[in-house]
Amino acid sequence: MRPSFSFLFLHGFVVLLLVFASACGKKSGADVNIQAEISNLASDNAETRQNACVKLGEAKEAASAGVKPLMAALKDKDALVRRLAAYALGEIGAKAKEAIPALRDAMKDPDPSVASSAASAITAIDPSQKVESLGPNVTN
């Protein structure tokens, strides 16, 4: 069963709210303890892993040490962690170029929101990269 467009829209809106809420009061990515958030990616708690992805994304290029752990998070059992890991990699930008093959694999994720986030991240990392169709997982 494929999720409806309205479900995907609502899911995306909730993620944006989470990102916005966590960004309120932050002055810059320099406020983020990169190593602590990288460690949090290994937490047993899905919410802790989700928050770590958001914070690493907020740190942008300063979080380049988190690229490999975020690549591993693209295979997390929690779909929101996978989606936010893709988001964070896109926010890191060109310093996450090594993640493009893992993001291409994430475009095949059974959760359409993960696939869409991965495609967006590829474009954010390297705008010259061609992103293929998202395939049957994403419906309009």
Describe it.
It is a single chain. By secondary structure, this protein is mainly α. It has a single domain, classed as Leucine-rich Repeat Variant (Alpha Horseshoe). The protein has seven helices and no strands. The protein has helices at 5-23, 34-40, 46-59, 67-73, 79-92, 100-106, 112-125. Helix 2 packs antiparallel against helix 3 (46-59) and helix 6 (100-106) packs antiparallel against helix 7. The longest helix is centred in the first third of the chain and has 19 residues, at 5-23. The radius of gyration is 14 Å and the shape is globular. It starts with a helix and ends in a 15-residue tail after the last helix. The model has no long low-confidence stretch (mean pLDDT 84).
Whole-number total of structural domains: 1
- What's the β-strand tally? 0
Briefly note the structural class of the backbone. Answer: mainly alpha
Spatial shape: globular
> For the record, what CATH class applies?
Mainly Alpha
Say what the CATH topology is.
Answer: Leucine-rich Repeat Variant
Helix proportion of residues, in percent?
Answer: 55-70%
| Head-to-tail CA distance between termini | 14 Å
Secondary-structure element string:
HHHHHHH
Helix segment count?
7
User: Biggest sheet, open or closed, and with what strands and sense?
Assistant: none
Low-confidence stretches: none
What is the average of the pLDDT values? 84
- Name the CATH architecture: Alpha Horseshoe
Radius of gyration: 14 Å
CATH superfamily descriptor = Leucine-rich Repeat Variant
Strand content: under 5%
